[in-house]
């Protein structure tokens, strides 16, 4: 088993005006989240957010610290959010175990020294999608099922954006320091997410797209509202969204995505909306 990580520096809106397609993808796209028997991380300097995945198959994976954190264990000064997007898995936190079915979530607070990931069935391995942010306080570890989530339905089939938003690890469901995570499922026939688009200067996001059918793709839109860019994405890839950027997408089919947020703004509804006709 190995832990693999990379670091991404922050970029200003002025800088990305000069980026070509390859540069844009190199800076913002996380192409590989899951690899069998590995824990993979991308550390972004936007709010010190970390996104990654753990995929245990025939053996357990331990959450290990990385050199960049300069900490004796991973959660010394961090909190962790997990959403399982594979087969049923088990997360061991200290002496307690939590079973996570498909699309169930787990929050782990600052200070836990031992976290271990297992798959219940190696033939159908778990895929633990991971988000982590700096933490100033210890909040209790808690599993959040889809029944525990705050659920909102938005959009309409007529505008191609009929979707269900599952708020899983948010401050209306449980206490966290700054991490918030949820999952948006698009209905068949709908392809647009987060439209009308918005920005929020006091928090950033990472989007993880999954349940993208074979031979289909999602076009993710980013950039300032008056000067947008796009990145074509495949199944089980993630993209970093800076605070100054919109974060919207349209697929060639319906799909699901997980949004993770960090920053000082914990109010889910606090955002600066962009009129569709004003986007450029």
Outline the structure in words:
With 280 residues, the protein is mainly beta. The chain has a single domain, classed as Jelly Rolls (Sandwich), CATH 2.60.120.10. It contains two helices and 24 strands. The chain has helices at 13-16, 21-28; strands spanning 2-8, 29-30, 38-44, 50-54, 61-62, 78-84, 89-93, 96-100, 105-108, 115-119, 128-134, 142-144, 150-154, 163-169, 180-186, 192-193, 198-199, 203-210, 218-224, 227-233, 237-241, 248-251, 256-263, 272-273. A seven-stranded mixed β-sheet has the order 1-3-4-11-6-9-12, with no helix packed on it. It has a seven-stranded antiparallel β-sheet with strand order 2-21-18-23-15-14-13. Strand 7 and strand 8 form a beta hairpin. The radius of gyration is 18 Å and the shape is globular. The mean pLDDT is 96.
Q: How does the overall form come out from the CA principal axes?
A: globular
Tell me how many strands there are: 24
Strand order of the largest sheet: 1-3-4-11-6-9-12
Major sheet attributes: 7 strands, mixed
- Estimated helix fraction: under 10%
Question: What is the CATH class?
Answer: Mainly Beta
Binned strand content: 35-45%
Number of helices: 2
Helix/strand class: mainly beta
H and E order: EHHEEEEEEEEEEEEEEEEEEEEEEE
Q: End-to-end distance, in Å?
A: 46 Å
State the low-pLDDT regions, or none: none
Query: Please, how many domains?
Result: 1
Radius of gyration (Å): 18 Å
CATH architecture tag: Sandwich
Question: pLDDT average, as an integer?
Answer: 96
Fourth-level CATH superfamily: Jelly Rolls
Q: Examine the coordinates and then state which fold CATH places here, giving the name of the CATH topology.
A: Jelly Rolls
